Every structure is written in C-alpha cells, then in structure tokens.
Amino acid sequence: METLEFIIYPDGRVQEKVTGIVGASCAEVTAAIEAQLGQVVSQEQTSEYFTQPINQSLDASNQITFSEW
C-alpha cells in the first residue's frame, strides 16, 4: 500500500514520509508536491528506496517435431 504522510510544524516546515513505493520512483510521485511546497532542505532515503523492483518473466516455448519412422 502506497502512502504519503505529511507533518506540518508550527514554524512552517513540512516533513514528508513516503512508504510502500519501491525504488527511486518515489521521487517521481512526490516531485509535483515538493514543487508546490517550496524549497527542499534535506532528504533521507529509506531502505525501500534502495530496494530493486522484482521483474519476473517466464518464457516458455514448446517445440513439437514429428518424424516419420
């Protein structure tokens, strides 16, 4: 489940926490929001950021040959 959590402090700072998004794609998800919020002071990547998405593919081919005996 993908979630974005925002904590807004009395001095105007906003802390953003992204969970459930694997890899660097979280930056794509939050780019528009961060542009509207203002200057990004710091970023800290979580372990999910460094996780590589699993891409599995299954290639199966059947070859049927008939021979005349």
UniProtKB/TrEMBL annotation:
<dbReference type="InterPro" id="IPR021375">
    <property type="entry name" value="DUF2997"/>
</dbReference>
<dbReference type="Pfam" id="PF11211">
    <property type="entry name" value="DUF2997"/>
</dbReference>
<protein>
    <submittedName>
        <fullName>DUF2997 domain-containing protein</fullName>
    </submittedName>
</protein>
